[in-house]
Design brief:
The structure is a single chain. With about 200 residues, the chain is α+β, with helices and mostly antiparallel strands. It is about 30% helix and about 30% strand. The protein contains 4 helices and 6 strands, in the order H-E-H-H-E-E-E-E-E-H. It has helices at about 5-20, 60-65, 80-85, 175-200, and strands at about 45-55, 105-110, 115-120, 125-135, 145-155, 160-170. It has a 6-stranded antiparallel β-sheet with strand order 1-6-5-4-3-2, covered by helices on one side. Helix 1 crosses helix 4. The chain is globular.
Length: about 200
């Protein structure tokens, strides 16, 4: 079985395992609200928007976003599930100064040999990752365009709102079916990330 097939099968099995909660894990964000990064994929076919309020100011949350990535701070979600499908992600519980110098054009790894690129970065405001310019193993290239936006909005002296938006443009019918199949898993992992960030940023 190819690496790509292994990924698809593993994700599909994971989807079956979390599908029972999918009815309760609806996106909790305003899909109609314009966000930074929307302009990168204006014709996205699949859009998911999630948000949460963090009990910390924007300045305290931003470092956690900047250091995300495989081989860096992780994604603050369900590491055990990632490891189940062979992705050795370990999420940190601390801010590491060595991971704070992220700039536009830098790569952010999702897993070994799979990366997105920082398309837009406004300190303490937004971090937009894009598949354009990213990488994947030879013969296992992503058959969809993708952006992943993290947007912070201050809601008070000691709180802020984090909005996470995923936008997809499948390039083939097979990619379209695959994306719709893995949506329960992606939604589940995003909820895990938001929970992980709430825990890490709580004063």
């Amino acid at each position: 079985m190819s690496e790509r097939s292994r990924w698809i099968v593993s994700i599909a099995l994971g989807a079956a395992g979390v599908a029972y909660v999918n009815g309760r894990l609806h996106p909790r964000g305003d899909a109609a609200e314009p966000l930074p990064g929307d302009e990168l994929l204006p014709d996205a076919e699949i859009v998911e928007t999630h948000e949460t309020v963090l009990q910390a100011p924007v300045a305290d949350v931003w470092p956690w976003l900047v250091q995300m990535g495989y081989g860096r701070g992780g994604f603050y979600s369900f590491d055990a599930l990632c490891q189940l499908v062979g992705v050795g992600i370990s999420s940190t519980d601390a801010i590491n100064p060595a991971w704070q110098n992220l700039t536009v054009g830098d790569s952010v790894d999702l897993a070994e040999n799979i990366s997105l690129v920082v398309a837009r970065l406004e300190p303490e405001r937004c971090l937009i990752l894009s598949s354009e310019g990213g990488s994947a193993p030879v013969g296992n290239e992503m058959e969809f365009d993708f952006t992943w936006a993290f947007v912070l909005t201050s809601t008070g002296l000691h709180s802020c709102r984090l909005t996470v938006r995923e936008r997809y443009v499948p390039q083939t019918p097979a990619a379209r079916r695959m994306l719709r199949t893995i949506r329960p898993v992606a939604r589940f992992m995003t909820h895990g990330m938001l929970h992980g960030l709430r825990r890490r940023t709580r004063g």
